[in-house]
Design goal:
alpha+beta, SH3 type barrels, 3 domains, 10 helices, 16% strand, elongated
Amino acid sequence: MNVGDAWIFRARDMAPSERVRVVADQREGRPPRVEVEFLDDQKAGTVKKVSPSRLCGPWSGVATFDALMANWARVSVHELDETEETAVYTVFERLVPRTIATVGMGYSRNCLGIHDMAALEATTGRPVAHFVDAVPSFRDNGTWWLPSEGAVLVAEAACRAAPVPILDCVTEEERQEREACKRGKRRKDLDGNSCASSSEWEYRLYLELGRPVYELLRQWCGHRAVSFYDRLGAAEAEIQRLDELIARAADAMRSNNLDSHARWLDDEHERDRVTPFTIRPTVDRPLSPDELPLQTVYRRRWWR
């Protein structure tokens, strides 16, 4: 950058390009500034100190730069909500390395940059053209740039291709949420001091922030993995085999006059049966003091 050169100035990333002339270079100051003079339209002759980051390149390349920013404007229309954003970053952190694709880089929030097309196809099981053709996109310096909807499509495809790491993560986090909703949790306040949160506050936080993300991740993973049907059939057959085995054992106890042991075995088998409702962590609402069950403890009179 030399004094007297014509440069591209943009007040914001998506603002129109304006032609300015560099009057003085003061980038060594704090904060760094460049004094420029506007050359066109109503601002002609106006001198202003601007941040160097607002100067986007020599004016000779304004056509190329405006075309690039027009592409960025096309992929910046849609924004993710907080739930979608958290779910997308969770998937990319665990399944998609940064060498393959990145989220949140560039001029658009939560946009997706695909750097290694072959590796992404191996990760998601789908060709890059499937994502590129589904949403507005453009290619710059060998990288495909997609809007936030493209990031959601890639995250969902990655979950379908490898659901186990995501489901394990969701299950572990829900176990931690369940403990926090029972006993509260130690957190840090704005000053960095440790403080205890109540179980009611943790449950409200789980309902507002945690559960929507977990349900969305489960939805992306699908109702079953590739071999889920086979595992389900094997599990049901094993349950039937164990039921018959325990029934024969209980009958053998009764035939040997061990009725109490047989009843205990039957009760234990039914009471502790593992079902789809017990295998998934359930986060319950903490009870208020008036909802706690009453426990009566009897003891002898102290004077006797």
